[in-house]
Design goal:
There is one protein chain. β9 and β10 form a beta hairpin. This protein has two domains: 162 residues, Beta Barrel (Elongation Factor Tu (Ef-tu), domain 3); 103 residues, Helix Hairpins, CATH 1.10.287. The strands form two sheets. It has a six-stranded antiparallel barrel with strand order 1-8-11-10-9-12. Strands 5-4-2-7 form a four-stranded antiparallel β-sheet. It is elongated and about 125 Å long. It has six helices and twelve strands. The protein is α+β, with helices and mostly antiparallel strands and 324 residues long.
Length: 324
């Protein structure tokens, strides 16, 4: 193994001291009511994963590509579920034919019931006139009751067939849902940060496909002492100057102020020790501005953040908004 250059090791403390001195100078040269801190741009990350297990058939996006909500990201092989869908369709067709047969049987049984009712009424009239014997009357009544029961059975068959259709349709919808899940789409607009799957790879349910960066939700996180955090207000104005483009001043808004200190000394009994408490603050860039420059938005970029502890303070000329 090569030994580190001694000059490089000696330079590290010098660089650290120089950075601290620069930061102190920034604080000392700022007008009262302004505070500066270092930070870097971050954005919300969305892990896009599969809902069902399957083999990746195709990846339709590349790293760095911008996508809109609903855009196709990847496709899983769907041969097995397509076969199940065909089976479900056959089940629906079979249930429909069963209902048609049952409906035809209802019509037939209604006709038979009508005939049996007429025969019963005629035989009953003749029986009252003592023309028809008792056994004829009993036979007519039995035929009528049998026709009623046959009609009820036919109507029940129709309802059973309808239930079968609903069940078959539910099975079809379930399979269709699985097929839809093989089409993995972007849940949100953003930029593909990492493509984590490749064609031919078999993923388990919940397997990650891509990491999507929401470039409409970009912010810088900084840490400020308690004396500053206590004077900040949510939705207060801020300014960002990024290292790669120091000629621009980007407007931002205080969107979050931590209620608990992130760095807490062992003892906070004295006023000086309480001043050492550091609180997390988020400075969010306006969504409309991000949409306008979305092709240029990058995360991980470092820079300086300026915040006001006095909202009535006018921004100095060097911190007025300046955009490309």
């Amino acid at each position: 193994m090569t030994k580190p250059n001694p000059l490089y090791l000696l330079a590290l403390p010098v660089i650290a001291v120089a950075g601290f001195v620069y930061w102190q100078q920034q604080q000392n040269t700022l007008p009262e009511g302004l505070y500066v801190s270092n930070g870097r741009l971050e954005a919300e990350q969305i892990e896009v994963a599969t809902k069902t297990a399957g083999r990746v058939k195709e990846m339709t996006v590349q790293e760095g590509q911008m996508v809109q909500a609903g855009d196709l990201i990847a496709t899983l092989d769907a041969n097995q579920v397509n076969a199940r869908q065909q089976q479900s369709m056959a089940g629906i067709e079979q249930a429909i034919r069963a209902k048609e047969e049952a409906s035809a049987a209802v019509i037939q049984r209604k006709s038979q019931l009508k005939l049996a009712k007429a025969e019963l009424e005629r035989t009953s009239s003749m029986y009252k006139q003592k023309i028809a014997p008792q056994d004829a009357m009993d036979k007519a009544r039995a035929q009528f009751e049998s026709a009623q029961a046959a009609l009820q059975l036919a109507e029940a068959s129709v309802k059973r067939a309808e239930a079968s259709i609903n069940a078959a349709q539910a099975g079809f919808d379930e399979v269709q849902s699985v097929i839809d899940d093989t089409q993995i789409k972007a849940p949100h607009s953003g930029r593909i940060e990492y493509a984590l799957a490749k064609p031919g790879e078999v993923l388990a349910a919940g397997g990650r496909v891509v990491t999507l960066l929401d470039v409409s939700d970009v912010y810088m996180t900084i840490f400020v002492p308690a004396s500053v955090a206590g004077k900040l207000s949510v939705n207060g104005e801020a300014r960002l100057i990024l290292d790669p483009v120091p000629e621009y001043v980007i407007p931002a808004t205080v969107s979050f102020i931590a209620g608990d200190a992130q760095f807490t000394p062992k003892s906070v009994e004295t006023h000086e020790e309480r001043d050492n408490l550091m609180f997390k603050v988020k400075l969010r860039i306006d969504q409309a501005l991000l949409e306008k420059y979305q092709e240029k938005v990058k995360t991980g970029v470092r820079g300086l953040a300026y915040i006001r502890t006095n909202d009535s303070l006018t921004w100095p000329e060097n911190l007025t908004v300046k955009l490309p």
